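tokens incoming
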């Protein structure tokens, strides 16, 4: 029994009388009258009858029934489009176009007998507010659509009338009133009117009249008012009807639904597959919401399950159900010095409280731990914690439920497994200035002014701390180089530097126990100029990643490139008009892959189609538009024999997500390669928005960032193709952002400073693995660079298929037959000074020690505002002679 009173088969009549809640006597008297009344009296209004139940000794009428339902967690979730949420509104909310969203003046907390309620931190419910639509019960912003945190609203409809029979588990109750369910803040919405509950012998359904508007994920201009239709919004089994009401969770798990070929197919595997009723999903095919009501393979599938429906009576105590643990804690394995967590999900009447316990003797005794939350977080664990058991108890006034036991396993800490939390050299300099780190550059010994590539260094520097061992890391890139030991106040390490490109670097000494401040040694590297020659016409082409060529989650929107800097849209969720998009401007062009693998100038219509002209479909279909940004007329110098290159392009292009709801500019990219290792940097600009407030639209300061890190570049006289680093690249994300997912195949990130900049645009989580359903689309695509040739086409190995682009191995470009080794006059001011000198015959890098300085190293942007779900990197450049293609991580630049 899920009711608050137990039914006993051998209870005496006077026992049943005592067990009946307040108001039951009146209902019994009404039931007797009903039992003796004719059918015509029922039709006259004794019931709001859609079909009367046969009266029995336990049947009674009600006119004060309250219907309460949160629908699903997804209906209370943040949406994938920037600044949008899935919400409920009392009454029928107006809508004037496909892109129209519900404004505060159009939203209503109450309408007639309908009230939208929000759960409070203590588990009780109160009338909802506009501001609360975007926050959790504790008032915190909902971080992202995949965070598992929701606004926890429900619709409550009062004054329901009908009959119930507790003995037979029968019920027939109808309500009068309407409410609106709006996804993406109303870009797609429908209304539910006059729900009717019908239960016979514990099996039943809830029907209602639906109305709304038809929209299209592929075309925001599609907009039509839909005819009303009576549908089944929930089916119910195992319903326990009591004299105080009922609580029932609608059927979903394992429910199959039939769908047209044009719809996203139902996924019928895993633990969260199922569907709302067929007639309900059929109607949602018209609204554009269909795949949000059945399992479709999205990362949010688990949030689509229906929440319990509660029916209670105003004159009696609400139905209270004891807790049950729906999701058990699982065993955790981590390393010493790292953290981990255990979590449960419980269902039951509010308020629910949680108490975690720990046992160090295989469950013989238990000690309370934690802060009363459903998740137990352990910030740092040691080897002594290995083997500890954890469990949680969920409680409310009706009882408690104890979870399964989960075990913690702690492995020894592996040197180099946890990188220090610095974004790059500039961040380390800032830490020195703030007193959080020590600059030992001038005190360190063993760092010569000039060293050969890959040379081993024997370093010594003062170490005032008590720790005896530690780690040495190289920045940018957070590369673990080895360990150091301390003796007599001197830290000593023998390290081998990897092949490095030109730029500023820092060695960071970090102790094992955190008792001492990190010590930094700063230095710079300039490549050898031996064998360099001029390049006067370099072409760069890059598709960035598949996600930048994908359809977006907001209806009718796509992710796209535009030549030049698109005009300011003014924000507020506005998309780019066709008049603002450009196929070419100056040295920049946007090209689209054709069905035969060749490339042609892009068109506005082609932004939404595959190379064969088919519509892109949903964001999870893995069909992409396959565009590339092409930059020409790059100038600089290259040395194929030493795999060195320094090329600069002049031009701008725009990367726009959600058809321009959020976008940024990329200007004047520069390619630097030294000893086969390179970076692509550029100046980024655009507009900053806020996922919680789309009215925020702030111009961003121009910032030089690393677009890509090129781990292994084979520079030839014609150019090269290389895939930027991505797989296995870690990125630091603030607590307010979506955490990086690092436990699945293909995890990684674009460069740290690039992701930092995207935190301001609202795109951060689209440039690293975040656990979203489109994570595989974020991996960087190959990059092609050509030298001194008007023709620059990517080789066949670098051309993406129609869908599911595979990773492309590095390929050296072969010079065209007519291509001769260039012999060009010097390009005076266009050639970087660092490449202007020649050195000896052997490859040499110059290391210049930087004495400690108190000068301001410049601000580091570390502001993260996060958008939906899931990630990659963004930039495009071209060079028209040889060929270069890169895809993956980018080295961080200062």
């Amino acid at each position: 029994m899920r009711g608050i009173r137990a039914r006993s088969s051998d209870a005496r009549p006077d026992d049943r009388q005592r067990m009946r809640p307040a108001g039951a006597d009146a209902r019994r008297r009404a039931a007797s009258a009903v039992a003796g009344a004719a059918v015509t009296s029922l039709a006259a209004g004794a019931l709001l009858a859609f079909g009367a139940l046969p009266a029995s000794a336990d049947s009674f009428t009600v006119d004060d029934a309250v219907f309460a339902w949160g629908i699903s967690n997804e209906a209370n979730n943040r949406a994938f489009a920037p600044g949008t949420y899935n919400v409920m509104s009392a009454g029928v909310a107006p809508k004037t176009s496909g892109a129209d969203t519900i404004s505060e003046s159009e939203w209503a907390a109450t309408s007639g007998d309908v009230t939208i309620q929000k759960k409070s931190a203590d588990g009780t419910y109160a009338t909802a507010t506009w501001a609360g639509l975007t926050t959790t019960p504790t008032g915190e912003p909902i971080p992202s659509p995949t965070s598992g945190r929701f606004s926890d609203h429900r619709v409550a409809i009062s004054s329901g009338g009908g009959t119930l029979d507790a003995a037979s588990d029968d019920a027939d109750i109808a309500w009068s009133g309407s409410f609106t369910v709006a996804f993406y803040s109303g870009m797609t919405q429908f209304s539910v009117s006059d729900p009717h509950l019908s239960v016979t012998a514990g099996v039943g359904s809830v029907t209602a009249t639906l109305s709304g508007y038809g929209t299209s994920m592929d075309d925001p201009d599609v907009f039509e008012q839909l005819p009303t239709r009576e549908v089944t919004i929930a089916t119910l089994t195992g319903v326990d009807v009591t004299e105080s009401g009922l609580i029932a969770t609608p059927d979903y798990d394992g429910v199959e639904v039939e769908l047209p070929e044009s719809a996203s197919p139902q996924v019928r595997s895993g633990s969260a597959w199922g569907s709302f009723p067929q007639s309900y999903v059929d109607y949602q095919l018209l609204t554009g919401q269909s795949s949000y009501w059945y399992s479709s393979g999205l990362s949010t599938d688990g949030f689509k399950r229906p929440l319990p429906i509660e029916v209670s009576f105003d004159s009696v105590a609400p139905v209270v159900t004891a807790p049950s643990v729906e999701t058990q804690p699982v065993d955790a394995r981590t390393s010493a010095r790292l953290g981990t967590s255990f979590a449960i999900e419980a269902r039951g009447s509010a308020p629910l409280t949680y108490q975690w316990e720990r046992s160090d003797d295989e469950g013989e005794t238990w000690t309370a731990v934690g802060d009363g939350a459903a998740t137990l977080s352990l910030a740092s664990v040691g080897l002594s914690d290995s083997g500890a058991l954890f469990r949680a108890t969920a409680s409310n006034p009706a009882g408690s439920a104890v979870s399964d036991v989960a075990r913690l396993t702690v492995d020894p800490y592996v040197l180099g497994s946890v990188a220090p939390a610095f974004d790059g050299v500039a961040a380390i300099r800032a830490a020195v200035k703030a007193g959080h780190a020590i600059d030992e550059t001038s005190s360190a010994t063993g760092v010569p002014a000039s060293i050969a590539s890959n040379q081993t260094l024997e370093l010594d520097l003062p170490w005032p701390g008590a720790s005896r061992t530690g780690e040495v890391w190289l920045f940018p890139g957070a590369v673990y180089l080895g360990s150091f030991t301390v003796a007599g106040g001197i830290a000593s390490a023998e390290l081998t530097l990897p092949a490095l490109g030109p730029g500023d670097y820092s060695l960071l000494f970090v102790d094992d126990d955190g008792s001492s401040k990190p010590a930094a040694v700063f230095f710079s590297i300039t490549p050898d100029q031996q064998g360099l020659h001029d390049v006067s016409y370099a072409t760069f082409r890059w598709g960035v990643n598949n996600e930048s060529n994908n359809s977006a989650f907001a209806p009718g929107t796509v992710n796209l490139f535009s030549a030049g800097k698109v005009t300011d849209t003014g924000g507020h969720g506005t998309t780019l008009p066709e008049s603002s998009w450009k196929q070419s401007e100056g040295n920049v062009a946007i090209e689209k892959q054709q069905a035969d693998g060749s490339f042609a100038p892009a068109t506005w219509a082609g932004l939404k189609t595959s190379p064969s002209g088919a519509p892109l479909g949903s964001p999870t279909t893995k069909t992409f538009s396959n565009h590339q940004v092409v930059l020409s007329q790059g100038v600089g110098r290259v040395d194929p024999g030493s795999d060195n290159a320094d090329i600069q392009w002049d031009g701008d292009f725009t990367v726009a997500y959600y058809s321009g709801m959020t976008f940024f500019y990329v200007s004047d990219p520069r390619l630097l390669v030294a000893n086969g290792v390179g970076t692509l940097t550029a100046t980024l600009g655009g507009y900053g928005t806020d996922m919680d407030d789309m009215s925020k639209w702030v111009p961003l300061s121009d910032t030089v960032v690393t677009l890509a890190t090129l781990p292994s570049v084979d520079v030839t006289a014609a150019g090269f193709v290389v895939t930027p680093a991505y797989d296995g690249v870690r990125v630091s994300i603030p607590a307010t952002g979506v955490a990086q997912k690092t436990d699945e195949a293909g995890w990684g990130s674009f460069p740290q400073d690039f992701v930092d900049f995207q935190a301001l645009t609202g795109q951060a989580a689209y440039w690293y693995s975040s656990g979203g359903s489109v994570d595989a689309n974020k991996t960087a695509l190959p990059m092609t660079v050509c030298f001194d040739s008007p023709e620059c086409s990517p080789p066949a190995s670098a051309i993406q298929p129609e869908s599911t682009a595979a990773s492309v191995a590095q390929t050296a470009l072969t010079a065209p037959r007519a291509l001769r080794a260039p012999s060009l006059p010097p390009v005076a001011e266009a050639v970087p000074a660092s490449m202007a000198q020649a050195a000896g015959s052997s490859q040499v890098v110059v290391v210049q020690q930087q004495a400690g300085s108190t000068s301001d190293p410049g601000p580091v942007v570390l502001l993260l505002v996060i958008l939906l779900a899931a990630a990659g990197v963004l930039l495009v450049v071209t060079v028209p002679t040889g060929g270069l293609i890169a895809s993956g991580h980018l080295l961080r630049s200062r």
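note: The first strand starts at residue 59 and ends at 69.
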